[in-house]
Design goal:
This protein has nine helices and 16 strands. With 380 residues, it is of the alpha+beta class. The strands form four sheets. The protein has a six-stranded mixed beta sheet, covered by helices on one side. It starts with a helix and ends in a 7-residue tail after the last strand.
């Protein structure tokens, strides 16, 4: 039986509302696919509905959560390039999120970073770091990078929150531009930039707030790569691909370094549906039995929607479910090993399941995260 909107919202509230015995911080990461557009057509020819229409629906869902006191404390939107969408989101949600990252990453003759962070905690310090290794092409229309924000958790502690959108790999003459490193290698270098910030600056109190103690660092956003197990996260080669790496080699040192600092990195409801190759040069394949098992157990296979499904959805006005998503995890909410001990749980969520609309709100699903911890003495 299909659950109605109120029932679904009740389940979400029961899952995500804070535990009375511990402190919690709730996160949401969502690639909203709001690229600059001419009329209703996005610059990449995307088939999604008008940006402001979809953004309004997203705002309405967050309003529903807020009315039930179940909204996330911190939101990271990716691909919030459209200026009208950024203004709409900031204005309409200002009552719940009085603090935001503003226009960090904006650049002349450029669509900006597409990153927009909303926070219920005061932002004490914020910086934007552009990536220096973007390939020429679609990605150079943006200012890809990452935001580092230090937020006041309470009168005693601050948290550091990093949000990013790594390179997608869209480029002109991609093979020639990648001759000194594949797209995956470039992403690994970008993750290395994030790692450097975590190791050198994340635990340092913001200027003027030296009395605050460090609580935790969180990294969230769209990583544009599969991060579905420890081997993938730490870029450890199987030696079965024709890429020159041997078994156990570290392919991307920056990615390896970053994920050695992060924990709780796989959504609790993720289900691996691919089978690793057994012969050198062979690719991974999707096992239909594992895929069906994932659907039957309501465990979802990824966080993006395939283009052919989006086209069918638009033509037939049928609702899209999480089980229909692709099998690669490319969005994430992670936390570091340092700071206060706690656990981070994540889950995929389809906002469309909470609305009367049939068309999709984005080509991604939403990722929820909840960090739960026992308060240190100063937090009480």
């Amino acid at each position: 039986m299909k659950m109605d909107k109120i029932a679904i919202l009740s389940v979400i509230c029961a899952t995500l509302l804070p535990n009375a015995q511990a402190d919690t911080i709730n996160f949401m990461a969502f690639n909203i696919a709001c690229l600059p557009s001419v009329g209703n057509l996005q610059i990449n020819g995307d088939i999604l509905r008008p940006n402001t229409e979809r953004a309004t629906e997203i705002i309405n869902v967050i309003d529903q959560w807020s009315a039930n006191k179940a909204e996330p404390n911190i939101i990271s939107f990716e691909e919030a390039f459209d200026p009208s969408v950024r203004t709409l989101i900031k204005d309409k949600l200002s009552a719940y999120y009085p603090y935001n990252s503003g226009e960090y990453g904006q650049k002349l003759l450029n669509a900006g970073s597409g990153l927009l962070m909303l926070s219920q905690y005061p932002i004490l310090d914020i910086q934007f770091f552009p990536y220096k290794n973007i390939m020429f092409g679609d990605e150079t229309l943006a200012n890809k990078g990452f935001i580092v924000a230090k937020l006041k958790y309470n009168d005693n502690y601050f948290i550091t929150v990093i949000t990013t959108h790594l390179e997608s790999g869209d480029a002109l003459l991609k093979d020639k531009q990648s001759q000194y490193g594949t797209t995956s290698y470039r992403r690994g270098v970008q993750m290395g930039y994030i790692y450097d910030q975590i190791k050198t600056a994340a635990t340092v109190p913001p200027k003027g707030y030296e009395n605050l103690k460090y609580l935790k660092t969180f990294v969230m956003g769209d990583f544009n790569t599969a991060l579905n197990d420890e081997r993938e996260q730490k870029s450890i080669s199987t030696g079965l691909s024709n890429n020159g790496f041997h078994p156990g080699d570290i392919k991307y040192p920056g990615q390896y370094a970053l994920f050695n600092t992060l924990q709780n990195t796989v959504p609790a409801n993720f289900f691996e549906v691919r089978v690793l190759p057994t012969e050198k040069g062979a690719g991974k394949t999707v096992d239909p039995n594992l895929l069906q098992q994932a659907v039957a157990q309501n465990q979802f296979t990824g966080s993006t929607l395939p283009d052919d499904l989006l086209k069918i959805n638009k033509d037939q006005a049928t609702a899209i479910t999480r089980q229909q998503s692709e099998y690669e995890i490319i969005d994430g909410i992670f936390t570091t090993y340092d700071g206060v001990n706690g656990t981070l749980q994540t889950q995929l969520l389809s906002l469309d399941e909470l609305t009367q609309y049939k068309y999709e709100m984005s080509d991604h699903f939403t990722l929820w995260g909840q960090f739960t911890f026992q308060p240190p003495s100063l937090l009480k």
